[in-house]
Design a protein that fits this description.
By secondary structure, this protein is an alpha+beta fold. It is built from two helices and two strands; from the N terminus they run ββαα.
Length: 70
């Protein structure tokens, strides 16, 4: 099963979630770039941002924060 977390500039592909092992298909540099691109675009303030896009943004933010990348 592939799960795609998407949002303005964010495209984070995860591997089989049932195994508990996540295989990122994007480099750390790409993930950080996507995060800052979405942030600069004002994803948190845009009234057209869908709830699942905000969830994806915050998921990526937490992931990058937890690994000390941002």
């Amino acid at each position: 099963m592939m799960t795609y977390i998407t949002g303005k500039g964010i495209d984070l592909s995860l591997g089989d979630l049932s195994s508990g092992h996540y295989a990122l298909n994007r480099s750390l540099e790409e993930l950080i770039s996507s995060y800052y691109e979405a942030r600069a675009a004002g994803i948190e303030l845009d009234v057209d941002t869908r709830p699942e896009e905000l969830d994806a943004y915050y998921t990526l933010e937490n992931y990058l924060h937890d690994m000390g990348a941002i």
